[in-house]
Write a structure and sequence with these properties.
With 440 residues, this protein is α+β, with helices and mostly antiparallel strands. The protein has 15 helices and seven strands. The strands form two sheets. Strands 1-2-3-4 form a four-stranded antiparallel beta sheet. The C terminus is likely disordered.
Length: 440
């Protein structure tokens, strides 16, 4: 049931056959309990030191949405500070428990996980290293702007990052400081009233020299990605699924999250279509991919209705991608025998878009249909047989081209390995004159 929590008219329209409670999506502990006779009551439910706390706030619509939220947040503030807001009158108030940055960070990360925020694992690692590592023992209310500036300057003084990398990381740490400070201020953790990171400006991008430009993986590098993923699975004893993951990314030009978070019921095996719903697609469009043979085999083999197609490779659904990307990167260089420039998962998507046009496999219009479906596209056009056939033909030709490049790289790797080393003359993966011998 879709509920618009900003509209009282929407709440008035809720009807149930059995008593049911609906949790407010952004206000902790606030519930709207609806009864079969139409009565609706605001309830508040939290826990403090494993002790359940329950209170009736009032009836709806006599108590409006805004009033109920304000009342629930007042109660939440007391709970977050270690008080029982429902304690009987006359009881001896306990002194407020001070909260350190370390403790507040744990609360913040739990909230990020509950709200299904992106890149939680990476955010947690960054915050623990730079924020908690520098001022973790300070109480939240005692943190000053100077303390935050010291945290933000940390990456700049890190010898391993260099000036350019340190500046980029510094801006990333500042962004996390701002959102963490905003969280503490909103929850009034340790009684804090201000966000000390609010007025600190990031380092202007124009002053950061040497920032990496958009990278497009070449056809050779895309083939190396697939071979490296297969090798990583072999080294892991077949317990990981990186070959399937990277194959789906390379063959379809998908974003990382579209593959990692793919659900079994998105695969329409009888139609040979992978349908990514608008709730998961970045542009809020429905993406329909008539995938090629290899991708169809992977999806058919792994799809289970309602569950993730790809199991977690790190024990968490988000984050830890950089660690595994670096492993693949090192294996790619082992296979190639030469240094490969830095790349990200999204660079695979850039490489797909560039090479599918460069190899004259798809027209610009077909490539755009695959890569960037528009949210305004008519649903009939999405499932138009002519469009689907053109897209399927393009993806099939692309799969064949990638497989031939993979076979060529394997042939070269086996040949050079038998001679006791890898080739050292191939240095430009985009120069076709250096690859003619490898094309099969």
């Amino acid at each position: 049931m879709m509920i618009n929590w900003k509209s009282e008219q929407s709440l008035k329209g809720i009807n149930v056959e059995r008593e049911k409670a609906f949790a407010h999506p952004t206000c902790d502990g606030l519930l709207l309990r609806v009864y079969p006779n139409g009565t609706k009551v605001w309830r508040w439910k939290r826990a403090l030191n494993n002790k359940p706390l329950n209170d009736t706030l009032g009836k709806f619509p006599a108590m409006g949405i805004a009033v109920a939220i304000d009342r629930a947040r007042e109660l939440n503030v007391a709970v977050d500070q270690g008080f029982d807001p429902l304690a009987k009158a006359g009881s001896i108030p306990q002194p407020a428990k001070r909260v350190t940055i370390d403790e507040a960070w744990t609360t913040y990360m739990a909230d990020c996980v509950r709200r299904n925020r992106k890149s939680v694992h990476i955010r947690d690692l960054t915050g623990k290293k730079w924020i908690v590592g520098a001022i973790g023992t300070k109480f939240v209310a005692d943190v000053t702007e100077e303390d935050v500036q010291r945290v933000v300057d940390g990456p700049l003084n890190s010898p391993s990052k260099g000036r350019t990398g340190g500046a980029v990381r510094s801006n990333g740490v500042l962004k996390i400081c701002k959102t963490f400070g905003k969280f503490c201020k909103k929850r009034k953790i340790d009684g804090v009233r201000d966000n000390p990171a609010e007025n600190i400006d990031p380092i202007p991008s124009a002053s950061i020299t040497g920032v990496r430009a958009k990278r497009r993986l070449s056809l050779r590098e895309l083939a190396l990605v697939i071979l490296a993923a297969r090798e990583l699975d072999r080294r892991n004893g077949g317990t990981t699924a990186w070959a399937d993951i990277m194959t789906l990314l390379v063959m379809n030009g998908c974003r990382k999250g579209e593959v990692f978070d793919a659900l079994g019921d998105e695969w329409k095996g009888n139609l040979g279509l992978w349908v990514i719903g608008p709730e998961r697609y970045k542009t809020s469009a429905e993406c329909v991919l008539p995938v090629s043979t290899t991708s169809a085999e992977i999806l058919s083999r792994r799809a289970e209705t309602g569950s993730y197609i790809i199991p977690s490779q790190s024990g968490v659904r988000t984050g830890a991608y950089v660690y595994f990307r670096d492993k693949l990167w090192r294996i790619m260089e082992e296979i190639a025998g030469y240094a490969i420039p830095h790349w990200t998962f999204h660079d695979i998507r850039h490489g797909f878009r560039t090479n599918i046009r460069k190899e004259r496999i798809a027209s610009k219009e077909v490539a755009e249909k695959i890569i960037h479906p528009s949210p305004s596209t008519d649903i009939d056009e999405l499932y138009d047989d002519d469009w689907l056939e053109e897209m399927r033909e393009a993806l099939t030709k692309w799969e064949d081209r990638v497989n031939r490049e993979v076979a060529a790289v394997k042939l070269l790797s086996n040949t050079t390995s038998s001679k006791g080393g890898y080739p050292s003359t191939i240095t430009d993966a985009d120069d076709p004159t250096k690859h003619q011998v490898l094309r099969v």
